[in-house]
Every structure is written in structure tokens, then in C-alpha cells.
Amino acid sequence: MKTMEQRKRRGGGFTLVELLVVISIIVVLMGLLFPTINVVKNAANKAKAGAAIQSLCGAAKSYNNEYGKWPDPANDQDFILVFNGLMNPQTGQKIANGQAATDNPRAIQFMEFKLKDVTIPGSGNQCPLAFYDPWSMPYAYCFDNGKKGSYYGGPFQNGQPSNLQSWTDPTAYDNQVPVPFKDDAAISTVIPGGYAFFSDGPDTRTGTDQSEPGSKNMTKAYEDDVRSWK
């Protein structure tokens, strides 16, 4: 009787070996699936960054049509305020003076920025005020005004963007902006037009350094950037 009961029990459930086999299969499948999920996620984020950059291009054109010049933001915060009609998306209050007010005296909203746009994704950190891409880095900008824009060389570390760099336009209103870092020889060193924007992309780095230092990935950091130019 005991032998029959034991057989019935074994027939009604999984043995330890069977459970281990099932768990092993699940782990293998998850290992195969995760890279695919990351690829799909990065593709979606790149599309999102591309759409944001196109919106920035439209805002820059509208600004130039309105004022007959290019903006001269002193920093990332002024960059937001100028395009957002002097409205701070964190506080909901308008500023009345400073460089941003000088750049946009009519307080026209050329592009709407919401609180989520100026909050570092995943951290909830709203400081400093900047327009963050899906990988938590501020969008880089430069205008053909003979002044300085900015970009972050990256990477994103310790909960903050790192390696802030000046992106300087040496000659105002010559209808071109310089590429801020050494690029491939096949790519022009200047960007035609009155403005340029880019995102550091999934590796949160830009420039000619290795995309993932210490890894087997030998791509250059700028190769995954999302740009307003080709």
C-alpha cells in the first residue's frame, strides 16, 4: 500500500530534478530574451529622442522667424526658459529678468516643456534644470550666433550627467555650426544651418572615445548619438 501511495504522490507533482530543469530552461530563455528587450527599448528611445530633437529644430526656426536672430542661452536652464516662454516647468512660475528674458522679451512659448521633460528619468531628480533625453543626459545645443552652447561628454554616473563641455560657434551668422568633437573623416566638420542639437544616445557618451571602455565593443562613443544633422 505504501509503495502504491508513493507512486501516486510522485505521479502528481514535479521531482526536485524536474524543477531544476524547468528553472534552468527559464533562466536560459530569459538570458536570450533580455538582449532583445534592450534592443527594442533602445530603438524606441532613439525614436523618442529623434522626435524631441525635431521639436527643438522647429522651436529654433520659430524663434529665428520671430526675432530675426538665434537665442543666446547662458546655460541649460536659460535654454529651457527661452523656448518655454520664460515659464519654469518645475515651479510653474514665469521669470521676468535675466538672460532668458532678454532673449525672449515677448515671452513666446516656442516649445512646451513638461515636468517630466526636465526630470532625470528613473531618478526623479529635477536639479539641475535641463531637457533630458531618455538616457538621462541633457540634449546638447549650439546656435550660429558666435557664442557658446553646451554638451555633456558623459557618461551618466552617480545619478548625474558628467563632463560638461562648451560647444562654441566661432563665427556668427555664417550659416554653419561646428561639430564639437573629432568625427570620422567621411563626415563634415561643420553642420549647415543656424542650429544643431544631439543626444549622447544609449551609451551616454559622445566624442571619439570607446563607447564602452574596457569591453569588447570597439565602436566610438558618438556612433549611437541621435543628431539633428546627418
Explain the overall architecture.
The protein is an alpha+beta fold. The chain has one domain (16-227). 33% of the residues lie in helices and 12% in strands. The protein is built from four helices and seven strands, in the order ααααβββββββ. The strands form three sheets. The chain has a three-stranded antiparallel β-sheet with strand order 1-6-7, with helices on one face. Strands 2-3 form a two-stranded antiparallel ribbon.
Average pLDDT rating: 89
Percent in strands: 5-15%
H/E series, N to C? HHHHEEEEEEE
**SS class:** alpha+beta
* Helical content class: 25-40%
Oligomeric nature of the chains: single chain
Q: How many β-strand stretches?
A: 7
The gist of it:
This protein is of the alpha+beta class and 230 residues long. It has helices spanning 2-11, 16-67, 76-83, 99-103; strands at 140-143, 148-152, 164-168, 176-178, 190-192, 195-199, 226-227.
